[in-house]
Amino acid sequence: MYEMPQKNPFKKSFFDLKELVDCIQENLLCPATIEDTNHRLHAYSSHEDDTDSARIGTIISQRVPEKVINRLWKEGVIPKLLQTDGALRIPHIEDIGLRDRVAIAIRKNNETLGYIWVVEDQKKLNGAQLELLQDAAVAATPLMAKLYQNRKRKEENYQDFLWQLLTGHYKNLEEIHNKFYDLNLKMPERFTVLAFCFEQDITRKMEEQISYLITTSQKITNHFLVVMDEELILIASPHPSQPDEKAFDDFISFFVSEMANRFSIQGVRGSAGTGYQDFDKAQTSYQEALKVLKMKERFPEELENVHHFRHLGVFRYLNLIQKDQRSRRYEHPAIAKLEAYDALHKSNLLQTLEVFIQQDSNMNDAAKKLFVHTNTLHYRIKRISEIGGIRLTNIHEKIGIYLDLKARKMDDK
Amino acid sequence: MYEMPQKNPFKKSFFDLKELVDCIQENLLCPATIEDTNHRLHAYSSHEDDTDSARIGTIISQRVPEKVINRLWKEGVIPKLLQTDGALRIPHIEDIGLRDRVAIAIRKNNETLGYIWVVEDQKKLNGAQLELLQDAAVAATPLMAKLYQNRKRKEENYQDFLWQLLTGHYKNLEEIHNKFYDLNLKMPERFTVLAFCFEQDITRKMEEQISYLITTSQKITNHFLVVMDEELILIASPHPSQPDEKAFDDFISFFVSEMANRFSIQGVRGSAGTGYQDFDKAQTSYQEALKVLKMKERFPEELENVHHFRHLGVFRYLNLIQKDQRSRRYEHPAIAKLEAYDALHKSNLLQTLEVFIQQDSNMNDAAKKLFVHTNTLHYRIKRISEIGGIRLTNIHEKIGIYLDLKARKMDDK
DNA sequence: TAGCCTTTTGTGAAAATCTACAAAAGAAAC
DNA sequence: GTTTCTTTTGTAGATTTTCACAAAAGGCTA
Predict the structure, then answer these.
(1) In terms of residue numbers, what domain contains A28?
(2) A384-410 pLDDT, tens per residue?
(3) CB interface of A with B, residues 228-287, below 8 Å
(4) Are A140 and A174 within one domain?
(5) Which has the closest alpha carbon to A32: A58, A60, A65?
């Protein structure tokens, strides 16, 4: 068989990624795709009919399907790719429709900019071809870098606008519309502000990991992203595939757990404000999200599964109530009495009362939480009513004293 | 038998009531007492050992025992006395220790100032003696009037002080102490402000009926009384015989029902603030009492049995919450959705939800209130959760939406 | 240490609540 | 007018909750 002279076809400059990917196909005789670090598709070679479903899915949706990404993480493929300089062979994964393929990271100064994926035929690529792929990756670097630069420039332009939007600088809806138009930004029909709080300042690298997770989650459509020290703010809509507001709850859970799993970034707390139509409510939604974060910090147990302002319930008003109490110097007489009793008898009737109400007045649940016998709790509740002079059978008194109890927790510590 | 010449012993002026009452005894040969309209004892003749227990009780406590008063009302004695000019014979009432006696009202210009009571012996008073008693009553009039005048003058002196106290004019406790001293008023150890709202302006006559009820109730010790148009304000302590704060609840119920029963004054609403020690809290206690009245007006059903601020429960905060909602233009998304659903399907899920929570999430109670089958309610609650996107199993969401529902009721109408 | 009071735990029967299923009635859609 | 979806009501067994009573344990005081 006659071999072509060994001239390196990638030692030239390419006009764009499309030209490069076609060149790869010509030289390796396999279909190729180029993705950025968020697995968004940027170029793909024309291919024969015969290709695998993962590739088709990627091309259709312009993005690698979530289940494929998840699997690649689980199998350790992505982490390995991020660390390896050369091409990497990935054995086929049947159930997500992934045939054998070879991938390589596109890098610039140790920073990963994207990936080249090549689907292998029956005939596997040989060593020389794999080395050729490395050259292709080098050739891709300036093109990918340009892509990121463009994006970054655009980003810088609108960052301060977004910040102003979130802090209520624009009161007028028309003004906001114009500004969107000026900046050439598409205004989503509906939006929700998400806020995340990290344990340390968000670095450039973390920012990438963040936008990686957002893009790959497929749960929400993120429109804008703002980073401010330890805080990350997203303006997003539910993903078309997920119908309602539940999407945000899911996304936040996903985001927090995956930041920990994939990137070992622990202790991220996330929240969402109400979804609104008009962007003059951006500040409101942001404030709501912040309120959720603040309350979660104070009441981690109570709000463990709460991410959305809509589920904040009575905690929305706790701040208000606490301030009122303080300004009036009001203390619920029953609380005062119970506290005195507790101090004198080393009991904990106050806590008992709080847990009892928090368990929706369910004796069994509350007894379990308190590690006492049901009848013990029964007895205590009777005593609490007597000592505090309260009628726990009355829902309004019950809610009232519960609010007072919770409001107390707002200022101590 | 030799009869004394018919010279009228009461046609002279008496130095005080004691002199008069002794004169009655001398002439009628029966023990006599003089009371004011509040059945407070002002003078009694020295008596033989043989007298009835009602009289002894009256002398000991300086006031006619409550059970005796109640009985005299029930038997129609007091109303009749108030209407009759001459002396009235009251047959004995065994079970409250009341022997046969004769009574007469002391009057001035149709206004009753008090009563003279005479306990009869075996030998009943004859007609002439009864007429003599009428003269005694006339003789008593100027003395009783002086008594009232003194009281009235003293009252006028401190009325504006009290009003200032209640409206927070005095911030300084020492200043208040001094003022009490200047006015020669005894400052009670603890006090509670009670507020009553009448349907029409309080007349002079009603004022007397009011102070009558206060004095005879024996449930509270009233220290001061202020009347302002339709409003009656008391500064009181629990009666020594009644131990704790429950006294006020009892008194208010008693007062409202007896104003209706005895004097046909309907629609009185009463309330009490918290009990405090220091009088710089007078305004607070008063404001609390007013708040109870205001909320009772808005939520008559919910607060039907609530008179004391301590039992106002969550309604303490409703005003605050409503204002907050209004200023933020916040509407709970679930409420909005349910309201829309109700309008579209002519259902009443919102009301269902409110009743359900108000019945402490008890399906049976709530179903009864709504006149539907338990399972119907069950079904509705499930639908409410779905449509509103709320988790009614979560107490915090439940309280939250309940507060929002109640707060809505604050401004409509 | 005994006696008294408060608190905790155990037991079991009565009362209630929950759950699933199904029929029937009403409303809305075609 | 028929069909479909929503809503209401009924029945019954399983499960939970409530309540009364009593024993035991712990604390405090004389």
Answers:
(1) 17-150
(2) 998 888 888 899 999 999 999 999 988
(3) 244-245, 274, 284
(4) no
(5) A58
